[in-house]
Each structure stands twice: as structure tokens, then as C-alpha cells.
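Last lecture ended with a question: if I hand you only a sequence, what can you say about the shape of the protein? Today we answer it with a concrete record. The protein is TetR family transcriptional regulator. Below, first the input exactly as provided, then the predicted structure, then a couple of comments.
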Amino acid sequence: MTSEPAAPVLGLRERKKLAARQALGAAALRLALERGLDQLRVEDIASEVGVSPRTFNNYFSSKEEAVCSFIVAQQERVREALRARPAHEPLWEAVINAAVDQASRDGAPRREDVRRMREMMHNAGLFAEMLRAHATVERVLAEAVTERAGSTANPLHARMLAGIVQGASRIAFHTWLTSGPDAEFLPTFVDLLREASAGMPTLTAAAARATAP
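The predicted structure:
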């Protein structure tokens, strides 16, 4: 049986850069939700974190990209959670458990914040960045799935599984957002993932062969 894949170890400089990017992204999202995208300036985001606009531009090309960076950050956390799953765990179960574990840690956002974000999607620049972020997210998780499944895995199947996880997340959020005040996000997300598991037998079988003793 193969051993668990080791996660890359970041040096101090890389960790500082990652922390700065995350801080800028979090500030951009928070300020956009508070003020609206049209009232948000790059200078405001940089000032919130205590850096210069030039430093901001080292990490993001626009305020829209910074606002949408939370999407990629969330999926990167799922990737690390997947890498940490036990090596003997079947692939699909590992993906589900990693996604659910991270969703539990992140928690559901405030409904009002989600509504404001949907309203901001009418901005063409933000919508374009959102699409790019989702494309990056699919690649990030697909790479982690391929890494875990082994060399016999079909990259197209890995992308399909990543797309299922993303799709389940979006549908769960929409269902939760439009449901009654007592509805919970996480159970809906888990149910959708488990129902989708029947659609991925090929990749699961490939992973099982790769990890067989």
C-alpha cells in the first residue's frame, strides 16, 4: 500500500507571502461586502492591511481578483485536508471527508453576505474574476485528487470529481440561501456529495488498484 503523500513544506518567506495574500484577500472581501464594490479602492484594501498599493499589486492585478481570492483559498484548504486523510481511505471517501471537514471548519457565511456577493456579480469585472477563480479551484483539487489516486488515474476523471465537489458546494449554498431561516448548509452539502459518489466508479476503481498491496 502506498504511503500518504507528503505536503510541500513552505519556507519562511513563502509562508509570509501566503499570509500577506490571504490578509489582502480577506480585507478586500470584507470591505466589498461592507461598502459595495464600486466604493472600494485598492488603496483602501492596502491601508486595511497596512501595506502600500504597490505591495497589493504584487499579489493581485485588481480589486476584483482580490475579492474573489477567497474561493481559491477555500479550495486550497480542502486540498491540504485531502492530503492529510489516511492513505488506506478509499479515494471518494477521502475527498468527501476532506471537503466536509473543511466546510465544517469554515462554517456557512452570513446569508446577508452571500446575498450581497450575488448582487455584486452584476459587475462584469467581478463576474469574470469569479469564473477564473472557479477554474483555478477545479485545477487545484483535481491535482490533489490525481496525486492521491496515483499514476493510473485519468486526469479527466480527476477534473470531473473536482467539478462534482465544486458543483455540490454551489448547489448546497444556493439551496441553503433560498431556504427557510432554520435550514443548515452542511447537511445539504454532505447529502449532495454522497449522492454524487455513484457517478465516479472509474476513478475510484483506478485509485483502489493503485493503492492495492
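Comments.
1. The mean pLDDT is 80.
2. The domain at 64-211 is CATH 1.10.357.10 (Tetracycline Repressor; domain 2).
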